[in-house]
Structures are given as C-alpha cells and as structure tokens.
Amino acid sequence: MSTILIEVRRAKAHDAAAVADTHDAAWLSAYRGIIPGAELAKLINRRGVAWWESAIRKGSRISVLVFGDQLAGYANYGRNRARSLHYDGEIYEIYLRPEFQGLGYGRRLFAAARRDLAQTGLKSLVIWALSENDPAIEFYRALGGRAVARSSERFGSRVLDKVAYAWSA
Questions:
Q1: Per-residue pLDDT averaged across 82-97, rounded?
Q2: Comparing C-alpha atoms, which of 169, 9, 8, 12 is closest to residue 89?
Q3: For residue 6, how many C-alpha atoms fall within 13 Å in the half-sphere facing its CB?
Q4: Is the pTM of this model over 0.85?
C-alpha cells in the first residue's frame, strides 16, 4: 500500500512554473464560455512563469496544495482591496486544476488561507466571484460565505456581474 502526501504550504520560487500551469488550466476550465475567448486568452497569457516567480519572490501570499509530487491548486490572498467593504482580508484567487476539483481540496486550501490571514490579524474576509461561475458560487455558499456586495467588470465588449462573499471573524 502506498501513501500519497497531500500538503498545503507557502509557494516557493521553484513552484512558479507549476503555479502558472495550474492557473492556465483552472482559468480555461472556469471561464471558457463566460469570459470572451480573446479576453480570456489575454488574462491567462499575462500570468506566465516570470509573473508568478516575481510575485513569490516579492513575498505575495501564495499558498499551494501539493498532491504527491503534483501541484494541484493555489490560493493568492492578503488585505482586502475594496475599501467600501469592511472586511480585513481577501482571497484574491483560489483555483484547483480541473482534475482535482470536487474532492475536498478546495476546502483545505481555503481553510489554510483563512488560517494564515487570521494569524496575522485579518480575521474576516471576502472573495469575489463572477455571477455566471456557478461552481464558484456554490463552493463559497457551501463554505458559509454570504453575499454582501455586487459589482461588474468589463472583459472586452462584455460586462459581467460579480458577487462578493464574506466570512466574519
């Protein structure tokens, strides 16, 4: 019988290529058919290996979920950027490779990011999701998030609604 190690840890510079690959796969899976194709390609292409390596080296809070020797997902988080929302922290991104979705790993990654934020005094948090991204909306609701704000964002010629989900301290 073999045992596979599953861990959530802070990203290291050598993880940049795997994070970039995970980002690309997760974004294509999540947003194909929602964000117009050309715009989605631009968003994905701007986050290559060099971008992730720089973000990790500069100390951005990026945690990764590693399944055996494969990076399965990542979360990027920090202080809340929306001044109109009175929450301390924000998870900017939380994504899993498509083949790791629906297995409970997103919950583990979310819990680790939330714990890391709380340990630095950021006890309440917010996450934004596109309204048309049903799996994300269901995930945040299942985690106990409550919708607290709405906004919109332009992607090329298309304006998409987004919802903020929040968790109090």
A1: 96
A2: 169
A3: 10
A4: yes
